[in-house]
Design goal:
The protein is an alpha/beta fold. It contains ten helices and 17 strands. This is tRNA/tmRNA (uracil-C(5))-methyltransferase.
Length: about 375
C-alpha cells in the first residue's frame, strides 16, 4: 500500500470548515471576527519521522494506520513534509541501503529541516553503533551536506552538531535560531512566522515597561518581541529549550532578555512573593515594570494560579494550540479584559487542530 498524495484542491474547503467549527465554539464569548492565516497546502511541515520496514533484503519508509497498527503503509513520497525532506528521502534511503553498517537493524529515521534549508537526520537502531557505523555515516553526511545523529539504547553519536540553524523571516528581517534534536520547535515554519509577526504587531513600543513571557521555548517569540520593550522576563522548564534560548539571544544580539528555568506556576508564585527560589538568586523581580504578558501554554492551557496572575496585567497576548482550553481560560479572563483581536493560524492542515491567537486589554 502506498501513501495517497494530498489533494491540495480540497484544502480551502477543509480550512473553511475547520474555521467555522472553531469560531462557533467561541460564539457566546462574542469575540472579534477572526483573522485567518492559512498554511501552504503542501510541503509545510519541517519535521517528519518514519519507521523503517525491512522486507526481502531491502527496506522502506513506513507509517501505520491506528486502525490496523500491524500493517505498514509504504511511504515513497510525503508531500506534507518540507521540500528539503521530500527531496532527500529517496536518495538517502538508497544510499543507506548500500552500507550494511548503516542499514543493519535500522529502526526509525527522523528528519528536522528549516526554512533556510538546513537538515538534521537522526538514525535510530536496535543495535549498538560502532566505529564502522561512524565512518559510513560521516561519508553520507558529507555526500548530502546534512547533519547526522546515530541513536540506540543508551547511546547517542553526534557527528558534528545536534541542531539545525533556522533563519526565520519576520517583517522583512531574519532571526537566527538553534533548533535542537528532541527539542520543541514549531512544525510549520511559514505559519510560525505569521504568528510571530501577528504577536509583534500587538506590542507597540514600550521603552519604559517590560514583557513577561511564560512558556518561552527557544525564544521563538522572545527575540523578535524584545525590541518592543525595555526588558523581557521569560520562563521555560525544558533544559534543552533554555540552552537554545541563551544561544539564540546571543546570535541575535538580544541583551535585554532573561530566561529562567522555572515553570509558570513557580514564577507566578515568586512574583506574588509566595515562595522564594534559589534559581532567582541575583534576580531583582521588583525592578520589572511588566505591562504585557505573552503566554503560549501546552494543550492543557493555563493553570488556575497563572490564569489569575496574568489577569493583573494590562495587556495579554495568548497563543494557544488548543481552542478548548483557550475557551475555558477566556471565560475567566474576559471578566477583567476585553478581547481586541482574534486570529486562527492553520499550523496543521488537513487535521482538526488549530492554533489561535488572542490579544486582550484590561477593561476600564
Amino acid at each position: 500500500m502506498s501513501f495517497k498524495p494530498l489533494n491540495t484542491a480540497e484544502y480551502p474547503q477543509l480550512l473553511a470548515e475547520k474555521v467555522n467549527t472553531v469560531v462557533a465554539s467561541f460564539a457566546d464569548l462574542a469575540l472579534p471576527t477572526a483573522e485567518i492565516y492559512p498554511s501552504a497546502p503542501e510541503h509545510y511541515r519541517l519535521r517528519a519521522e518514519f519507521r523503517i520496514w525491512h522486507e526481502d533484503g531491502s527496506f522502506f519508509y513506513a507509517m501505520f494506520d491506528p486502525r490496523d497498527p500491524k500493517a505498514p503503509i509504504r511511504i515513497d513520497h510525503f508531500p506534507t513534509a518540507s521540500e528539503t525532506i521530500c527531496t532527500l528521502m529517496t536518495p538517502l534511503r538508497l544510499a543507506l541501503g548500500e552500507h550494511s553498517a548503516l542499514n543493519k537493524r535500522l529502526f526509525q529515521i527522523e528528519f528536522l529541516s528549516t526554512l533556510s534549508g538546513d537538515m538534521l537526520v537522526t538514525l535510530i537502531y536496535h543495535r549498538r553503533l560502532d566505529d564502522e557505523w561512524q565512518l559510513a555515516a560521516q561519508a553520507i553526511a558529507e555526500q548530502f551536506n546534512i547533519q547526522i545523529i546515530g541513536r540506540s539504547k543508551k547511546q547517542k553519536i553526534v557527528l558534528d552538531r545536534d541542531y539545525v540553524l533556522e533563519q526565520l523571516p519576520v517583517d522583512g528581517k531574519h532571526y537566527a535560531y538553534h533548533q535542537y534534536e528532541g527539542g520543541f520547535t514549531q512544525p510549520n515554519g511559514k505559519v510560525n512566522a505569521k504568528m510571530v509577526s501577528w504577536a509583534k504587531a500587538r506590542c507597540g513600543q514600550n521603552p519604559d515597561t517590560d514583557l513577561l513571557e511564560l512558556y518561552c521555548g527557544n525564544g521563538n517569540f522572545t527575540i523578535p518581541l524584545a525590541t518592543h520593550f525595555r526588558r523581557v522576563l521569560a520562563t521555560e522548564i525544558s533544559k534543552t529549550s533554555v540552552k537554545a534560548a541563551h544561544e539564540n539571544f546571543a546570535m541575535n544580539t538580544v541583551s535585554n532578555a532573561l530566561v529562567l528555568r522555572m515553570s509558570s506556576e513557580e514564577l507566578t508564585s515568586a512574583l506574588n512573593k509566595e515562595r522564594s527560589f534559589r534559581r532567582l538568586h541575583g534576580v531583582d523581580l521588583d525592578s520589572y515594570a511588566i505591562s504585557t504578558v505573552l503566554v503560549d501554554p501546552p494543550r492543557a492551557g493555563l493553570d488556575a494560579a497563572s490564569r489569575e496572575f496574568i489577569a493583573g496585567f494590562n495587556n495579554i497576548i495568548y497563543i494557544s494550540c488548543n481552542p478548548e482550553t483557550l475557551r475555558r481560560d477566556l471565560e475567566i479572563l474576559t471578566k477583567s479584559h476585553h478581547v481586541n483581536d482574534f486570529a486562527l493560524f492553520d499550523q496543521f492542515p488537513y487535521t482538526h487542530h488549530m492554533e489561535c491567537g488572542v490579544f486582550l486589554t484590561k477593561q476600564g
